[in-house]
Q: What sequence folds into this?
């Protein structure tokens, strides 16, 4: 049997991925079972226990155990009356798994898992064939069954099914246990969060707006919103240079105008430190402004970063018009149709939150409601996404924007809300200014109703 399987460092790498990486779990969890980690007599059993919990959790909830690992292990210690020494050893392992230094070389690790399971399956199948042959019970049907079973375990015939009508209780428990904010993160834009939920993993979403109305600011806002909620973000800029994008993020984080960033280095550093206290995730910016960026290229970048230990939960692409189609078409709209199909497949295959932005036509420059039929080049873009939000001119003055839900597969659509932005600071949404504008709008409407009642009398 493969000797590397019992190597402690290898098992730590493997268990870290089982606890944290949903793509790794999707590809390998069906091959693994807790007893694959069972120690020999006298060896420590902590890795076996954690691997068992990780596999059981994924089987039940279809999510990595991740942030629930400590809770599950503590609960196990309580139920089994584990000694302080055993509990401390388990907590040390949990802390080591939660660090990122084990999250590297995922493809190589997956290959090792498959190699190990193939080796075990080959040995057990050969052993069973020999035993049946010795007893004179190896029929043609049994020979075919054993060989076919060994082949399909690692071939294209392998798939997982569920008995839908018998597993309602399992689905109910999964929904209760799942943290909804992790499945559908918030926009951190109160008027928007009040009416809809954000897109889920595996879904493609877009912001739509005319030139200069806030597309890039909306994408920056979503990146920071995901980071603040504990997700890793890969931000791909295709139009603006990396330096400009970095300034945009610094301005949004520190609430300082972009033009003053070079004048206030100490204030920037102080405010940046305050922001970092809230952040338990990471963000990387990819400069794709040199051109030639296709969706397969983006996925390759995502995969390379994952193999280096950075698994992006969200990919944000600024913006769609700069994406190059993998196949040249006679018209740009046909290329965009292919691009959006590729983006949708990328999101689904990697189970990520994927956002981009689309520019609208000239006639939308001063419009309040931006609908899905007003995107430039290809009006069918919105049909290929799960959520489309238009950014139009708001009702509360120059710095106001109207966010209109043009399409939503998760809930309400064809409704909108006004917000106030702070565009000199790179902020799509200024919470304090929006609350003040809402209050003033409410008072104005109340006054108009009273005056209307007086005129009727």
A:
């Amino acid at each position: 049997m493969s000797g590397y399987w019992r190597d402690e460092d290898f098992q730590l790498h493997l268990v870290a991925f089982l606890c944290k990486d949903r793509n790794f779990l999707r590809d390998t969890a069906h091959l693994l079972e807790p007893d694959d980690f069972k120690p020999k007599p006298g060896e420590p059993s902590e890795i076996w226990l954690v691997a068992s919990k990780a596999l059981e959790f994924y089987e039940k909830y279809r999510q990595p155990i991740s942030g629930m690992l400590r809770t599950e292990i503590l609960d196990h210690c309580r139920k089994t009356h584990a000694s302080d020494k055993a509990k401390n050893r388990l907590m040390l392992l949990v802390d080591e798994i939660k660090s990122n230094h084990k999250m590297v070389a995922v493809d190589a690790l997956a290959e090792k898992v498959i190699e190990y399971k193939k080796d075990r399956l080959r040995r057990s199948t050969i052993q069973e064939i020999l035993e049946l042959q010795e007893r004179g019970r190896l029929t043609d049907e049994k020979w075919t069954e054993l060989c076919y079973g060994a082949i399909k375990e690692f071939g294209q015939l392998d798939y997982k099914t569920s008995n839908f009508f018998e597993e309602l209780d399992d689905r109910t428990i999964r929904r209760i246990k799942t943290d909804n904010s992790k499945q559908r993160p918030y926009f951190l834009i109160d008027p928007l969060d009040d009416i809809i939920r954000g897109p889920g993993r595996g879904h493609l979403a877009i912001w739509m707006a005319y030139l200069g109305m806030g597309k890039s600011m909306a994408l920056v806002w979503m990146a920071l919103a995901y980071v603040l909620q504990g997700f890793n973000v890969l931000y791909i800029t295709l139009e603006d240079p990396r330096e400009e994008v970095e300034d945009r993020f610094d301005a949004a984080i520190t609430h300082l105008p972009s033009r003053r960033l070079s004048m206030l280095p100490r204030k920037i550093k102080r405010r940046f430190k305050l922001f970092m206290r809230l952040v338990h995730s990471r963000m990387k910016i990819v400069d794709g402004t040199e051109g030639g960026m296709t969706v397969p290229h983006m996925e390759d970048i995502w995969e390379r970063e994952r193999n280096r230990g950075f698994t992006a939960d969200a990919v944000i692409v600024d913006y769609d018009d700069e994406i190059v189609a993998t196949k040249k078409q006679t018209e740009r709209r046909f290329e965009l149709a292919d691009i959006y199909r590729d983006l949708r497949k990328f999101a689904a295959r990697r189970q990520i939150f994927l956002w981009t932005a689309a520019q609208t036509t000239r006639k939308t420059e001063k419009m309040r409601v931006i609908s899905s039929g007003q995107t430039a080049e290809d009006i069918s873009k919105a049909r290929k996404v799960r959520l489309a939000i238009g950014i139009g001119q708001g009702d509360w003055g120059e710095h106001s924007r109207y966010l209109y839900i043009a399409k939503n597969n998760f809930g309400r659509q064809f409704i909108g809300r006004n917000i106030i932005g702070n565009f000199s600071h790179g902020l799509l949404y200024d919470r304090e200014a929006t609350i003040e504008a809402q209050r003033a709008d409410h008072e104005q409407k109340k006054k108009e109703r009273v005056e209307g009642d007086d005129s009727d009398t």
Observations:
- Strands lie at 203-209, 233-237, 283-287, 314-318, 353-359, 387-393, 400-408, 416-420.
- Residues 331 and 377 are 9 Å apart (CA to CA).
- The mean pLDDT is 85.
- Residues 1-178 form one domain.
